[in-house]
Amino acid sequence: MRTSQTYNIEHPERFKNQLLKWAQQFDDIVWLDSNSYAQEYANFDAVLAVDAFTSIKTDYLEAFEKLKAYQTHTNDWIFGYLTYDLKNSVEDLSSSNFDGLHFPDLYFFQPKKLFLIKGNTVELQYLKYIEADIVQDLNEIKQINTTAKHKKNDIKIKLRIHRDEYFEKVNEILSHIHRGDIYEANFCQEFYAENTAIHPLETYERLNSISKPPFASFVKTSDKYVLSASPERYMQKRGLQVISQPIKGTSKRSSNSHEDALFKTALANDTKERSENIMIVDLVRNDLSKTAIKGSVKVEELCKVYTFNQVHQMISTITAKVDPNTSPVNIIKSTFPMGSMTGAPKISAMKIIEALEETKRGVYSGAIGYLTPNGDFDFSVVIRSILYNATKKYVSYSVGGAITAKSMPLKEYEECLVKAKAMRTVLEN
């Protein structure tokens, strides 16, 4: 079904820039970039999928069943996103909060053209009927000029939830925790701009250059864009192994190396942050056990602190083994939404945060990634991301944090501002 050709590339970073610029001519784009971040489970340095041959776009009703049928029928690479609101397909839940973005709840496409970059090589996998395009496309890509003038985004960011109201809502979550309704809730707030336009590619490039995360992504479907600088893997399947790497625990960085080291050590030893992380590890273990071979769920790494350009983050790694007959879509469905973006117990936490948040999350705190022809997959969590509907002229980014019994509203609010800094910087400059 696909023709595969591999080529050497002299300057991978330059080629990546040229490739992403070339991709802008298409209505359907998924670009994934690891930014050469040292991570044990990386499959590729970068991936580009463009130009839909077939696609699936649906609301949450029976969304996973539709995705499973589509994935089985295509038996090919498919790329796309899952919104947080697919929770309504998994559990008896609903979403009625304000939605300024209007993204479909689920979108995947089978690309005509696929680029897989690893080191100094790029593998092009084109559908057979367009294999003659390969040489012409490569020549076009190599001719693209990567120098461009900086176009300023003229945007005034608004807050959906103001500070005092945020404190009230966090205190309400704390009341639920003290009553024993939940142990932890991931509470999110939206920052947005209306009647405005941004330059999606340039905005993404600036966001990525600030953060250099391991799960950067640029997604375009018609007039809708996701510009993501995510540091978090949701879940990966490699053969019969499934890997989940939830993040819970954040500290700011410092330009002073001594102070920065102190921040990192303080995060590693922070009992509140560790308890947040461990609660979600327990939740992920439980989720993975639904489809895992009995006794195969293991915590490979607990509360390890990783350093990124903007923040230090506490990450745990949980693995499991699955039976070869287990559907990859069933694995995703049984763990969705990811525990790091909900809380524990999961269903109770989702009900409480839905009632207190002002905005429908949509793609934010959902997942972006791909499934392969052999049933493997890799998805990131949509955080540290800018969402844009060009037709509606609506720009949005959201941030959140885990509220536990030890949470202090002011500190939680300040953590949100730390997480929001990169998005605000690129939008207002």
CATH level-3 fold name? Anthranilate synthase
What's the overall average pLDDT, rounded? 95
Characterize the overall form: globular
Number of domains: 1
CA-CA gap between termini:
45 Å
What is the topological layout?
Layout: E1 2-8, H1 12-23, E2 28-33, E3 46-58, H2 63-74, E4 78-82, H3 87-90, E5 106-118, E6 121-127, H4 133-143, E7 158-159, H5 163-179, E8 184-193, H6 200-211, E9 215-221, E10 224-230, E11 233-238, E12 241-245, E13 247-252, H7 257-269, H8 271-289, E14 298-307, E15 311-321, H9 328-335, E16 343-344, H10 346-356, E17 367-371, E18 377-381, E19 385-389, E20 394-403, H11 409-428
Antiparallel strand pairs: 1-6, 2-3, 2-9, 3-5, 4-5, 4-17, 5-6, 7-8, 8-16, 8-20, 9-10, 10-19, 11-12, 11-18, 12-15, 13-15, 14-15, 17-18, 19-20
Helix pairs in contact: 1-4, 2-9, 6-11
Describe the fold and architecture.
The longest helix is centred in the last third of the chain and has 20 residues, at 409-428. The protein has 429 residues and is α+β, with helices and mostly antiparallel strands. It has one domain (2-145, 153-428): Anthranilate synthase, CATH 3.60.120.10. 48% of the residues are buried. 32% of the residues lie in helices and 33% in strands. It has a 20-stranded antiparallel sheet that branches. The protein is globular, with a radius of gyration of 21 Å. A hairpin with a 2-residue loop joins strand 5 and strand 6 (121-127). It has helices at 12-23, 63-74, 87-90, 133-143, 163-179, 200-211, 257-269, 271-289, 328-335, 346-356, 409-428; strands spanning 2-8, 28-33, 46-58, 78-82, 106-118, 121-127, 158-159, 184-193, 215-221, 224-230, 233-238, 241-245, 247-252, 298-307, 311-321, 343-344, 367-371, 377-381, 385-389, 394-403. The protein has eleven helices and 20 strands.
